[in-house]
From TrEMBL:
Enzyme class: transferase
GO BP: iron-sulfur cluster assembly; methylation
InterPro entries membership: GcvT/YgfZ_C, GCVT_N, TrmE/GcvT-like, YgfZ/GCV_T_CS, YgfZ/GcvT
Tree of life domain: Bacteria
EC number, UniProt record: 2.1.2.10
Keyword list, A-Z: Methyltransferase, Transferase, Transit peptide
Record GO terms (molecular function): aminomethyltransferase activity; methyltransferase activity
Domain GCVT N-terminal residue range list: 4-121
Name of protein: Aminomethyltransferase
Pfam families in UniProt: GCV_T
């Protein structure tokens, strides 16, 4: 169960209006006339079609098709902004810079100059305040991302006060992003994984955009029709395991691992995200065990 305080915060972020900080998340900025075509050639989604105000989700991939980063891409009038988990700024800038030759593109790690928060909850529809923010897929809708530089904090505070938004903590954010099925790079998957293993094909991979770094591997997997393992939302028949990740078994064979878990008020049970092998996914009658208790798949397809 969530604590009494966390339960109140969950209610704020779902049925009321709540705000939660994305502490230390990475911001990378691309500017210059060639920014869209340059990033388009290095990620899985269609960047060249983005207009100012548009956004998308994408994987940056290496030459073998392995994941370098999982990012949200926001298009502004003269720049592209990449948002992802903490500690990725140097990795992303170094990776992109490796392929920067004559293009008119400038790369900048703005993580220390820009901070982000999520504002969410059904109460947003009743708020008199006008929301000028980015859609947030990390938690169930309605949810928005607010970006700010240090000098804009008082303005954000005034807006949140008009919305009567409650400040919420990371435990509730973890519960909501698991409910939304949003995986975290470095927690639920890493650089050893291929994009299709993360089960974000519809939102993060454009299969008809043309050539890009790693595209050959991703296209080959698409032609084969499946990968050997994929992330899934799961439900556990016991409390949150004391330590994560933890192995998942089919009979006595390891068939995956649970990487994230939290109590979910929506499901009235502990839910999580797990990387599961094909034998666990294909057999709907399979009895999976995690930490000695049954584990069921919420989104098998």
């Amino acid at each position: 169960m969530l604590s009494e305080q966390a339960t109140k915060e969950y209610e704020s972020l779902t049925t009321g209006v709540g705000r939660v900080e994305l502490t230390d998340w990475t911001t990378v900025r691309l500017s210059g006339d060639d920014r869209a075509s340059f990033l388009h050639n290095l990620c899985t989604n269609d960047i060249k079609s983005l207009q100012p105000g548009d956004q998308c989700e994408a994987f940056l991939t290496d030459v073998k098709g392995k994941i370098v980063a999982h990012v949200l891409v926001f298009s502004a009038a003269e720049q592209l902004i990449l948002l992802t988990v903490p500690g990725q700024g140097n990795v992303i800038v170094s990776h992109l810079d490796r392929y920067l030759i004559r293009e008119n593109v400038e790369l900048s790690d703005d993580s220390n100059d820009r901070s982000w928060s999520i504002i969410a909850g059904e109460g947003l529809a009743k708020s008199a305040a006008t929301i000028q923010a980015l859609l947030c897929p990390l938690v169930p809708a309605p949810a928005y991302l607010l970006a700010r530089a240090a000098e804009h904090q008082p303005l954000e505070g005034e807006m949140l006060a008009r919305m009567d938004a409650s400040d919420c903590g990371p435990d509730v954010l973890n519960a909501l992003r698991i409910e939304a099925g949003w995986p975290l790079f470095g927690t639920d998957f890493d650089g050893t994984n291929l994009p299709q293993e993360i089960a974000r094909n519809e939102s993060a991979i454009h299969f008809n955009k043309g050539c890009y770094l790693g595209q050959e591997t991703i296209a080959r997997i698409d032609a084969l029709g499946r990968v050997n393992q994929e992330l899934r939302q799961v439900k556990l028949a016991h409390a949150v395991p004391a330590a994560l990740p933890i192995d998942v078994f089919l009979k006595e064979k390891k068939v995956g691992r649970l990487t994230s878990a939290s109590y979910s008020p929506k499901h009235e049970a502990v839910v999580g995200i797990a990387m599961l092998r094909r034998e666990a996914l294909d057999d709907s009658s399979a009895v999976l065990l995690c930490d000695g208790a049954p584990l069921s798949i919420l989104n098998r397809d």
